[in-house]
């Protein structure tokens, strides 16, 4: 093996030991890095690791090789006896490192989980060390077409952004930006959200102040915009096959004019009617309370008088309270 080949071999082993991919499973190397607050590992310690022992690399030899190519990823201590990652190592991390990361959206099947997304960007850009799919409001990971991707090298961030201009992105149609740029958009959004929140709170405060100053006027305005109370009557025990027209004519035998009736669905015995005033609503209820009436068939527009109320006589009642509110809420939705 030539000198250059040996140097290349030592450099590859060194960078592999400190790589994100290797540290996912290499517990021995993780323990060496985390033992130092700044993540430095001595060259003497490195020379005793299995892969360096296999090629009989000395501490001095490893140090000299690191200076040839690895100082864009690794850094030497001041006394040059130790070496560490430039990119911080965080065991069991849940968030990506901003300087090494991108935000990407527009991902669709089959790129919907960490493994497939990592494979895609490793192929198109470079080695991926971490993929972060944000959790939903309930605390579960639910992929919604966007995520954060962290690379081994900072250069890969720029390369990923340039990917949007390449032919590889014609089919993927991805939108990509650096994590730093995404953070700026996030800060701007939160700022605008807070401004709008304060504006809405100001409007409510203004409304409450006016209500305290002139409560009678506010109540009057409220009454004017509210629905008309006491004019809706629930009718039951109609013939299930009778038409809306027949039902109206039968009910108007009371002498009270009906302003509106909800659609009469065949097969149902009940319906709602709307009267011109609360007085009319009460009057029609009183009439059929005092004159028990049975609709004998689907074409009966007059009704048959009964001596007393039974399971067949018409039943009418004015809607009140929450039942009345629900009626008007449903009416507004139509």
Topology, pairings included?
Layout: H1 3-18, H2 20-23, H3 27-34, E1 41-42, H4 43-47, H5 50-54, H6 59-69, E2 74-76, E3 82-85, E4 101-105, H7 114-124, E5 128-132, E6 146-151, H8 155-162, H9 169-172, E7 175-178, H10 179-213, H11 215-225, E8 232-236, H12 244-251, E9 260-261, E10 271-274, H13 278-290, E11 293-294, E12 304-305, E13 315-318, H14 321-333
Antiparallel strand pairs: 1-3, 2-3, 4-6, 4-7, 5-6, 8-10, 8-13, 9-10, 11-12
Overview of this protein structure:
- This protein is α+β, with helices and mostly antiparallel strands and 334 residues long.
- The chain has three domains: 3-85, Arc Repressor Mutant, subunit A, CATH 1.10.10.10; 98-183, 2-Layer Sandwich (Alpha-Beta Plaits), CATH 3.30.70.330; 232-333, Alpha-Beta Plaits.
- Helices cover 46% and strands 14% of the residues.
- It contains 14 helices and 13 strands.
- The chain has helices spanning 3-18, 20-23, 27-34, 43-47, 50-54, 59-69, 114-124, 155-162, 169-172, 179-213, 215-225, 244-251, 278-290, 321-333; strands spanning 41-42, 74-76, 82-85, 101-105, 128-132, 146-151, 175-178, 232-236, 260-261, 271-274, 293-294, 304-305, 315-318.
- The strands form four sheets. It has a four-stranded antiparallel sheet. It has a four-stranded antiparallel sheet with strand order 9-10-8-13, covered by helices on one side.
- Strand 2 (74-76) and strand 3 (82-85) form a beta hairpin.
- Helix 1 crosses helix 6 (59-69) and helix 10 packs across helix 11.
- The longest helix is centred in the middle third of the chain and has 35 residues, at 179-213.
- It is rod-shaped and about 115 Å long.
- The protein starts with a helix and ends with a helix.
- The model has no long low-confidence stretch (mean pLDDT 87).
- Residues 1-94 form the HTH La-type RNA-binding domain.
- Keywords: RNA-binding.
- Residues 226-334 form the XRRM domain.
- Residues 100-176 form the RRM domain.
- One of its GO terms (biological process) is RNA processing.
